[in-house]
Specification:
Elements: H1 6-34, E1 55-59, E2 62-66, H2 68-82, H3 95-103, E3 113-115, H4 135-148, E4 153-154, E5 176-180, H5 186-201, H6 203-206, E6 208-213, E7 216-219, E8 228-229, E9 245-250
Antiparallel strand pairs: 1-2, 1-3, 4-5, 5-9, 6-7, 6-9, 7-8
């Protein structure tokens, strides 16, 4: 090396190029191994990933990214319109999004919207109130009623419930609510998905933990927030598969 370090400067571009090639090679390997989803973020209609979108709606024109405020507005407007109630202005939202949320996938009701999970970490654990729900769950029920009107509800009772659910059910500590859409028909499935989508869009505000419906489950603990297949303990039982009701529960709070 010369006294002024000339040789060292000549080598730096080669080291930088080598580092860049190694980085690109590692990224390409990850994409091949894990698929394009490793890059994160919902895809746009052209198949490329959309960066930064909190929510995504699968439309007939491809996937459309929304921020959480847009997702809340869209799901609320669609739910109110379905009831014949005046809905808020949605002129800034893609019409294809509203159509899909209102009608569901062509020929078959199903999941069309999902949002990334974001669970609050500083919640206090709560006890049952006189309704059989914790204050958080009661707040959730009131919010649903304001948008969807009176619904057929279950899974809680004054004094709490102590049977009829799995051993670890959130119904026993007043955190779970079932909203029934009976009998199991295509129209009732579509109505159930209106509510399920609304719950996911509002999960951050209402401290929602899980939404289960129609053989699918959404969890706030999933960073990507996509719907997953629900593994029912008895595949032949439409109640355990949550075909006739939406289950929603709120976070417990407290340590851990």
């Amino acid at each position: 090396m010369t006294a002024d370090g000339t040789q060292g400067r000549r080598r730096r571009p080669w080291r930088s190029l080598l580092s860049l090639l190694l980085l690109l090679g590692g990224l390409a390997g990850a994409v091949l191994l894990l698929g394009p989803g490793v890059l994160g973020g919902p895809r746009g209609g052209d198949g490329w990933l959309r960066w930064g979108s909190e929510c995504v709606v699968e439309t007939s024109e491809g996937e459309v990214g929304l921020d959480r405020a847009e997702a809340k507005l869209a799901t609320t407007a669609v739910a109110l319109s379905a009831r014949g109630v005046e809905a808020p202005d949605t002129s800034g939202i893609d019409e294809a999004v509203l159509q899909r949320l209102a009608a569901g996938p062509p020929g078959d009701a199903g999941a069309s919207l999902w949002c990334r999970g974001s669970a609050a970490g500083d919640l206090q654990e709560q006890q049952l109130t006189g309704t059989g729900l914790t204050p958080r769950a009661e707040q959730l029920r009131e919010a649903m009623t304001e948008v969807f009107g009176d619904q057929s509800l279950g899974g809680f009772a004054p004094g709490g419930v102590d049977q009829g659910h799995g051993a670890e059910s959130t119904h026993y500590d007043g955190r779970g609510i079932d909203i029934f859409f009976r009998p199991v028909t295509e129209e009732n499935r579509r109505e159930g998905w209106l509510l399920a989508h609304w719950l996911v869009a509002h999960a951050e505000d209402l401290d929602v933990q899980y939404v289960i419906f129609d053989d699918r489950v959404w969890s706030v603990h999933s960073a990507r927030g996509q719907w997953q297949d629900y593994d029912a303990p008895d595949p032949g039982n439409e109640i355990l598969r949550h075909l006739d009701h939406v289950h929603v529960d709120v976070l417990r709070g407290g340590p851990g």
